Amino acid sequence: MHGHAVINLHAGTVLALSADEVARQVREGFAAAGHAIDVRLVTPDRLGAVLDAVAGMDGDVLLVGGGDGTLRGAAQRLAGGRKALGVLPLGTMNRYARDLNIPLDLTAAVAALAAGEIHSVDVGELNGQVFLCNSTLGLPARYSRQRQRLRGRDAGERALGYWRTVRAVLRARHWLALAIDDGHDARRLRVLSLAISNNAYAEQASLMLTRPRLDGGELGVYVSRHRSGLRMAWALLRVMFGRWHGDPYLDAGTARQVTIDAKRPLRVVNDGELDFVHPPLVYRTRPGALRVLRPAAAA
Question: How far lies 212's CA from each of 201, 220, 292, in Å?
């Protein structure tokens, strides 16, 4: 196996470690298993150009180190092709790495991936743009907008800003008027939040929602019609304890395609990245569209 590694220098774990040490571990860990990996350390402003260039080069795998947004950018370029995406868990949440059962310790992750296997998994798509984990609108988008405004500020200002944002979200009563068609039913709803996931979440107790399958060929559809952000937060807490059912204001289901219409552009968060999207929003699943490198035991 040979390929390239692109590492975001501003990824959470890279900031905590030496970038050169991260590059050394990746390069030497794969070399020990007989693989040749060229490692590139990239600033965020150059990520897009470097991913464009590397995605078109020869190689079996493109290893990417960064958050879910960085991974999404790589998946957008690789979906539908033969080159596999390898996930180095260097972000803050590492949601996609967790779903692939990749160890969160870098040394262990490199060893597992160097001995891993390539498998095909699904991607979600919104109006032609790929997402790997989920796409949300409503309250999550409001929180993400405030979080982006706080980036780069000092610790005290960020802490105060996050506290004010969370308090505002819990008090929020900002509903969205949406027309939703999931192929089973066409409805007009007022929602506080809506999430579309790339395959459904497990209905079991977990502090972080996980997806047992990434190749089920479906989207998870989750609609919150709660009366306030606080009530939605309580519902999410119930979900973390595995108590999905019994909440009349939480709708959960699956679909292969979902169309959402509204009277104005909507703020949407795709894998943690905030964007404005003009309706209609057409979500669909692309079964087996992405090849990924994952630990052999997990696959």
Answer: 7, 12, 16
